[in-house]
Design brief:
The protein has two domains: 172 residues, 3-Layer(aba) Sandwich (Rossmann fold), CATH 3.40.50.1970; 152 residues, Dehydroquinate synthase-like, alpha domain (Up-down Bundle), CATH 1.20.1090. The protein starts with a strand and ends with a helix. With 360 residues, the protein is α/β, with parallel strands linked by helices. It is 47% helix and 20% strand. The strands form three sheets. Strands 1-2-9-6-5-3-4 form a seven-stranded mixed beta sheet, with helices on both faces. The structure holds nicotinamide-adenine-dinucleotide (NAD) and zinc ion (ZN). Zinc ion (ZN) binds next to helix 11.
Length: 360
């Protein structure tokens, strides 16, 4: 089992990476979690993962009760949170209790939010089962729900006691979801690690074959990269902003397309946009744009969007909760892969030219 530490003073915690659920009981023990355990999962993950996971707890002598929420982003809201609270209340839990999120980012975000707020905070553990959750959402402590059409608008920073990644959960994950998760993985390479970027590009085929060794290496690298950023900047100051590479345009496309595309698919388009922006600003050569585009094409992620509505996407960018004032912030590659800088750009023509280029 691989172990990575996220160092955040008294909120520090380990991330374990494994190829099955067998060690979960031991991890609960070393985190000194002695209270009752409630596993929260969604209807899809319940069908293919929860039995094996719960068995691993039982084998180690832990009792686990399960609560299943409906799958899908549309259920990451206060109504579902209320259902979770009601269930917890019925169990008469005390503050030693632990909520375990078994699922993707939706389950992780809402379970973390319930854990952060129930009884003013009970223990929280993540067992992420999508590539997006294993490489991105389970590290960093951002928890929350959507409200009145705004994504992640209600929430908190709440760190788990530990994260347990079983890479073989990806065997039941649909390819489209795996692909979308890979967008964030590629992003980590582009912002901080060119060797890792090359590794992903070289191993695309093995990733889709769910090669255990490759998936473990990817989980390890991803978590280390995200943890290093979060350790230096837990509450989203300037450094953590580099994780938004590809997201300025990506988020806007996601909303304008009314969530018909997955988040990772929009990030893929946004990354191509950011590369183009850097090219137009003469910060990088066109060959670098094509290199990134080539990797994303190989993965099967979208790199162009026919019929893109330039004005709509442009206007939508100003609704991003991360923008400061009326100026748009872009994370752009700095000369090469593995290094980025944050740029404030208010050249409307340039931005629109970049968005339009995604339609060609
Ligand atoms: N907290 C953060 O820092 C952070 C970062 C990025 C994204 N997010 C959030 O994460 C969410 C997206 O996460 P996601 O992409 O994991 O989506 P998701 O949780 O909706 O999972 C995607 C789909 O795959 C299914 N699924 C999950 N694991 C499976 C498995 N192993 N086998 C079969 N099916 C499986 C789910 O039921 C769902 O239908 C969004 O709500 C986003 O806001 C949070
Ligand atoms: Zn993202």
């Amino acid at each position: 089992m691989i172990k990575i530490s996220v160092n955040l003073q008294d909120r520090s915690y380990p991330i374990y990476i494994n190829t099955d659920y067998a060690q979960i009981g031991r991890c609960v023990q070393s985190a000194r979690l002695t209270g009752r355990i409630v596993l929260i999962t969604d209807t899809n993950v319940d069908k293919c993962q929860s039995e094996e996971c719960i068995k691993a707890f039982l084998d180690e002598g832990y009792e686990v009760s399960k609560f299943v929420i409906p799958a899908g982003e549309e259920n990451k809201n206060l109504e579902t949170t209320r259902d979770i609270y009601k269930h917890l209340l019925g169990l008469k839990l005390d503050r030693n209790a632990t909520l375990i999120a078994l699922g993707g980012g939706v389950v992780g975000d809402i379970t973390g939010f319930a854990a952060a707020t129930f009884l003013r905070g009970i223990n929280f553990v993540q067992i992420p089962t999508t590539l997006l959750a294993q490489s991105d959402s389970s590290v960093g402590g951002k928890v929350g729900v959507d409200f009145e059409g705004s994504k992640n608008i209600i929430g908190s920073f709440y760190q788990p006691k530990f994260v347990y990644i079983n890479v073989n959960t990806l065997k039941t994950l649909p390819d489209r979801e795996l692909r979308a998760g890979l967008a964030e993985v590629v992003k980590h390479g582009i912002i901080l690690d060119d060797e890792f970027y090359e590794y992903i590009d070289y191993n695309v085929h093995k990733i889709f074959n769910r090669d255990e060794a490759v998936l473990q290496y990817i989980a390890k690298k991803n978590c280390s990269i995200k943890a290093s950023v979060v350790e230096k900047d837990e509450k989203e100051g300037d450094l953590r902003a580099i994780l938004n590479f590809g997201h300025t345009i990506g988020h806007a496309i996601e909303t304008v397309m009314d969530f018909a595309l997955l988040h990772g698919e929009c990030v893929s388009l946004g990354m191509v946009g950011a590369m183009r922006m850097a090219q137009y600003l003469e910060m990088i050569d066109e060959s670098l744009v094509n290199r990134v585009k080539g990797t994303l094409d190989k993965i099967g992620l979208p790199t162009k969007l026919e019929g893109i509505d330039v004005d709509k996407v442009y206007n939508q960018m100003f609704y991003d909760k991360k923008i400061k004032g009326r100026k748009l912030i872009f994370i752009l590659p700095r000369k090469k892969i593995g290094e980025v800088i944050q740029c404030t750009i208010d050249d409307e023509d340039l931005i629109k030219r970049v968005i339009a280029s995604l339609g060609e």
